[in-house]
Write a structure and sequence with these properties.
163 residues, seven-stranded mixed sheet, alpha/beta, 28% helix, 5 helices
Length: 163
């Protein structure tokens, strides 16, 4: 995967360091996927083809007016003791440019958002995503990167939506 998207360890190291600095313990949560952003539709199509060689395309869904493809890797990405199976690849959103690179990771919570956030009263979480109809989320922004928390793994959500 690194030959296609580049090294992932610096990105993950940075986010795990930020989580540790915030005192957020994610050791018991599944890190179910990471997101890689591109800045052009041509690059999206190229990476979609390249990722198809190392994983199965689970879905391409139209979300917020643009396609988002999700792949399950044939071999998981290994990071420390974690195995990450899925990569999310959104096409660029018109009028909302993002530099190419890894953008966010998502953890699966086994508790309510209120219980989770109450454990960290000194922190502010973005809660706009709590109103999503499918797999609501909360998040913390770290510059151009983010950590999101939701209740269902992306692969489960895709299967649920396809039924």
């Amino acid at each position: 995967m690194e030959t296609i998207l580049g090294p992932v360890s610096p990105f993950l190291d940075h986010l795990f360091q930020r989580l540790a600095a915030d005192g957020i313990d994610v050791s018991s949560y599944e890190l179910d996927h990471l997101c890689y952003r591109v800045d052009t539709l041509e690059r999206y199509q190229k990476l979609k083809t390249e990722l198809s060689a190392i994983g199965t395309l689970l879905t391409t869904s139209l979300i917020a007016g643009r396609p988002i493809s999700t792949f399950k890797l044939f071999q998981p990405l290994q990071y420390q003791e974690r195995r990450i199976w899925c990569i999310e690849l959104p096409a660029p959103k018109a009028g909302s440019p993002h530099p190419e690179g890894f953008e966010h990771i998502e953890f699966v919570l086994d508790e309510t958002f209120d219980v989770f956030m109450a454990r960290y009263p000194q922190l502010t979480f973005k809660t706009k995503g709590m109103n999503k109809a499918v797999n609501p989320e909360i998040s913390r922004k770290y510059g151009t990167m983010a950590v999101k928390f939701h209740h269902h793994p992306i692969e489960y959500v895709i299967k649920y939506l396809d039924e």
